[in-house]
Every structure is written in C-alpha cells, then in structure tokens.
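Dear Dr. V.,

Thank you for agreeing to look over these. As mentioned in my earlier message, I'm a first-year student in the group and I'm still getting used to reading structure tokens, so any feedback on how I've presented them would be very welcome. I ran two proteins. I've put each sequence directly above its structure. The first is here:
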Amino acid sequence: MEIQAGFVYISNNINNKYNFTKPLLFIKTMKNITKILSIVILVFAFSANVLAQATAIASATIVTPITIVHVSDLSFGNVVPSATTAGTVDVAPDGTPSYTDVTATALPAATATITAASFNVSGTPAATYDITLPVADVTLTGPAGTMIANTFVSDPSGTGTLDGTTGTQTLNVGATLHVGVAQAAGTYTSAPFTVTVNYN
C-alpha cells in the first residue's frame, strides 16, 4: 500500500508496479474543467461589460377634430340708399349696425332684422384656434344690380379659445356692405362665404 496525491492505492498484484494512471487522469481532467469554467466566466464578464440595453414605449394621442357649424346668416337689414351719394352699412360682430350716407327703415318688417353671421366652433377643450375670414369681396346679387360686402371682422378676432369644459365657442362675423347711388330696390343675396378655423 502506498499513499499518493491524497489517495491510497493497493496494487492488484504485488508483483506489478503501483497504478497511478487513474488519479493523474482525474487531476488533469479537473484542471481542464477549471480552465474551461474560467474562460466561460471571463466571456460572460466581457459580454456584460460591452452590452448595454434600454427600453422605450410608443404612444399617440387622438385629438378631437375641430368643427364649425353655421348658426345664422349675416343680414344688413333694410337699407334706404342715397339718391346722390354711395354709402355703407357696417355690421359689427355683436350685430350692431352703423350707417354712412344711407339710412335704415323698419319696413318691411320681415327683412328688417340685422344680425352678424354666427357659428359654433367645437373641439378639444381649452384648445386655441386660428380664424380665417374672407379676404376677397363677396358679391350680393339683386333683381337689378349688385352690391359688395368686404372688410370682414369677427369676435373672437384672429384667434379663439375653446371652453375648457365644453370645448365650444361662439364665433360671430360682421362686414361692411357697399350701397350704390340710388341702388335699385329688391332683396340682394350672396353665394355662401367661407369662414375657416384651424387648431394652432
């Protein structure tokens, strides 16, 4: 019997040399496994050092489209022209008229009402929006001639703000009517004019 590398070996044959092959192979195998494990650990450590990751999310917000709905038309009421001078009728966004070289009359009553054009604007609560009014002249055509309306004004002017709760606002539009000298009597109307609103 002989002690070698922590193992006790007894020869199978006292005439044979002691057999140290198996313990030496075991020790060599363990060394190889240790080397492999060391390499694996180094590889993982290296990978951890060179690899970096981050995450993100995707999102989108659907916004309520802005809309504008006609409520009432622009009416200049009854106008009496001058026989010698052209004149104008101004209707403010609040419906208040003012006259230059023309006068108003209460008759006929059916057409005497003076109103600014009115629209309801709706969309995202508290949003602001741009207002675009007609720039070109709007032609009113009657039984024997025409008149023009221009210089459109609005309230709110330029930019509006929708109500923070309901998401709505009233938009009123006025303009100036140009009345010719001795303008022919009759009812004059225009083609629809356009008022545009856009979120800003």
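The second protein is here, in the same arrangement:
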Amino acid sequence: MHSSPTALKMLAFPYTHLPTVGGAWKKMRPLLKAPGTGLVWDLGGEPKEEDYRVVNSRPGGAALILILPRSSRIQPTRSILQLIQTTRPNAILPSHQVPHVDHLTQVLRRPPTDLPSALTEYLGWRGFSISRGARQLIRQTAEFSTEITSIGALAKRMYLSRRALGRRFEAELLPAPSHWLHLCRLLRVAFRLQNSDDSVLAVAFQCGYTDGFSLSNQMRRMTGVRPSEARKYLGWEWILEGWLCREAEHGRLRPQGASGALLAQTGAQLQCPGASKTGSKTELAEGCSPPDHSVLPGPAILDRRRGNTAKR
C-alpha cells in the first residue's frame, strides 16, 4: 500500500482484493454506495488532503478502517487524534506493511464493542443533532435489546408505562420506541449471521424470534434487507442506513426543535435502485440487491408537523 499513489483502498464484496482509490474517485464513489462496502486508509505515508476529502465525503453506510503509521512516525499526535475524531472510523489497526484482505474482512464483520455508543455516534456523523435526553433513550433501548423483545418489557425496564415511553420519544422528535427496539435486535441478528455459520432459523431462535419467516419479514420491512443479504454483505452501518431511509420515507424522522433530529443533507430525494413503489411504501423487487441508502431526504420532506407532504 505504501508504494501506491494514494493510501486509500476500497473493500467490497466479494472481498477478494483491494482496488486503489485515486484519480478514479469519481468513478469509484458510486461503488461505495453498494451494501457491505468500505474504505481502508493507510496513514503510513503522509496523509494527503485529497484522501481526507474522499474519506469525509464517503456516502452513508460506507465503513472506514484506519491503519496507523509506525509509532516513530506519529507526528504530531494531535493531528492523528483530530483525524480520527472527524472521520469516525469503524476500526483502527496498528501499522501493517501489507494488510491482507482476509484480515480486513474479519475487521469489517466484527460487531462494535459498544453498540449503544456506536449507534449514537453514527447518527451524529450522519448529521443528526441529538439531545442528551434522546441519546439516553436510544442508548438504553440498544442496551436492553440483548434481552428484551417487546415494547411492553422495554417500558417496564425503564420504569415507565408504554404510553409514557412513547411520549418521551415523541417529545424528542424520534421514531417510535418499538422501531428503535426492532432496529437494535435486527443489528444483533446481522452480527450473528456474519460471524457464524448458523442457519437463519437458528439465529432467529437465538435472538428471540418465533421462526425464520418472522425474522426475515421484519428485517425486510424495517430495513429493506433480507437475512441472506445481511450475511452476504459485511458490516452494519449500511443496514442502519436502510432503516433510516425507511423511517424518513414514511415521515417518522422529523427535524426542527432544539432537541430533535436534524438531517444535515437537504433537498435530496430518496432513491432506492431496484425498488418499486406501492402506495406510500417502497418494496424491493424480487431478486434485486439491497437498495442504495446513501442519500436521505432533506428536512423539507421530513417535517410532518408543518403540514408537509410526508405521510406516516
């Protein structure tokens, strides 16, 4: 990697090689919108401004793996720390002379050590301004999702009634608590699928679903992704991105308000390749790949409280 004109590589399905991202960035950027795709940035050389711009402009759902330089070359330390803070890498690896694609693939499929924190950090990186109260609600839901399967049990664990819990999420302009609980459970399903050879049925039982059909139906309805695709394409941010797009498309993500969620990207319409519209819902055409969730609709589409055109 050190001998290439750029320190950036692309890691994508079927995860057999690492093509260089350089002058062909404009051509390769659409490929980063594919599910299970990420960038690998080797900081062993002098980080280039162009590389930094590419990393910072990567589409939502695209993972980032940073490879640190040798300890003797980490100068100044503060600039490395700032780079890490602004780029939000999925993983930070020690210096490698020539990282093997199989090693990087293992890193890509590895679950976050702290899902609640990873979830809120990703939302911040995607441009959502989340209050302390909203952050706490999301983190608690993610934390309890390891053992709780119903919204009634979640409300009880938080010492609230179901109605009071719903009002708290609504006050923070967040989607319903049941949607966050489903999301976190589905992410945990994806972690198991990508890190074991267990069947979908076995994973469904392990994660509290009654059968594989119920799991598959809920995953597709909530994120637009099938369990077979969640296993095939590695990582988890692209699945979260699918959920965000579904929530935004149905008007359940709302901007405005000092403590509400605010999308940084504006004016863009949701585009899901291979999807067909049925009423107000988007359904994947049979046999199509997961949709491109790299572009979220802007605040004008999301604001249901102002009588906008977005519908639940």
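From my reading of the second output: The beta strands are 8-11, 38-42, 63-67, 91-93, 275-278, 281-284. The longest strand covers residues 38-42. Does that match how you would interpret it?

Kind regards,
E.
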